């Protein structure tokens, strides 16, 4: 695997874990177009690599992501003034392409949420498979208070918290902490900030106990429940199950269970 060069992200390979750190601390890791493009390049580079089983998303400097980059908005406004009528559309839609790619990424996505988790950062949290929040992190959808809309993240927020809560959060711009984010289901749990690294390590240990290919197929199965008719989904699930049982992973998992040992992928 060859990772792309990045200017706005820090990349660290740690065995089966790829740690991706949003690295614009001077702007609380606001999501610039460059960062969006770099995230997409990293996701594409590792998508088919079975050696990368988990991607950890975190922000540098004590913040996850404070939303979109104001400088990009200003640049798009200048483009609009010069006659490029689709400038804002293209900027916003590119973010939507990234968050859609993150949602569908075959690896397990673990988000570590601290400091500002706002706007686009909030949306990114909503497409993680596991979200661990600091109990004092600050969450919110501030877009309507700025005269804009949470255009690309709204569907993913609805899927995460349900329609009634999504309406309240998006239409009031309410701010709330990590403990409330866990109650709403945006994060799966909230812990004191000093315990984030410990809880992350425990989560990664749990993920490593799961078979790599079975995890990928299971993630796709779960996502397909949103888009496929039930009979079609269950037919495909039965085929995937039969393939899994007959696979090398299935044999190893069964033998490890009988022999009361860890399977090879968890060692």
Automatic annotation (TrEMBL):
Lineage top rank: taxon: Bacteria
CDD domains: crotonase-like
InterPro entries: ClpP/crotonase-like_dom_sf, Enoyl-CoA_hydra/iso, Enoyl-CoA_hydra_C, Enoyl-CoA_Hydratase/Isomerase
A Pfam family of this chain: ECH_1
UniProt similarity note: Belongs to the enoyl-CoA hydratase/isomerase family.
Name this protein carries in UniProt: Enoyl-CoA hydratase-related protein
Organism lineage string: Bacteria, Pseudomonadati, Pseudomonadota, Gammaproteobacteria, Oceanospirillales
């Amino acid at each position: 695997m060859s990772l792309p060069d990045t200017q706005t992200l820090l990349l660290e390979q740690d065995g089966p874990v790829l740690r991706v750190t949003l690295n614009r601390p001077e702007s609380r890791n606001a999501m610039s177009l460059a960062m969006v493009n770099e995230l997409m390049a990293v996701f594409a580079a590792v998508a088919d690599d079975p050696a990368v089983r988990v991607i950890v998303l975190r922000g540098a400097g004590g913040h996850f992501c404070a939303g979109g980059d104001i400088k990009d908005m200003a640049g798009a406004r200048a483009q609009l003034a010069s006659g490029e009528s689709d400038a804002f559309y293209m900027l916003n839609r590119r973010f939507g392409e990234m968050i859609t790619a993150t949602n569908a990424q075959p690896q397990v996505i673990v988000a570590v949420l601290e400091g500002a988790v706002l706007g686009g950062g909030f949306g990114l949290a909503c497409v993680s498979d596991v979200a661990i929040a600091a109990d004092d992190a600050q969450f919110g959808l501030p877009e309507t208070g700025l005269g804009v809309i949470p255009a690309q993240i709204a569907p993913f927020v609805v899927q995460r918290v349900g329609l009634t809560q999504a309406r309240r959060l998006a239409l009031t711009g309410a701010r709330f902490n990590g403990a409330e984010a866990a109650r709403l289901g945006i994060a799966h749990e909230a812990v004191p900030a000093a315990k984030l690294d410990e809880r992350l390590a425990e989560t990664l240990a749990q993920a490593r106990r799961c078979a790599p290919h079975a995890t990928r197929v299971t993630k796709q199965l779960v996502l397909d429940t949103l888009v496929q008719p039930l009979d079609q989904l269950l037919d495909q699930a039965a085929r995937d199950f039969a393939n899994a049982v007959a696979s090398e992973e299935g044999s190893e998992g069964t033998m490890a269970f009988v022999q009361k040992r860890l399977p090879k992928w968890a060692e």
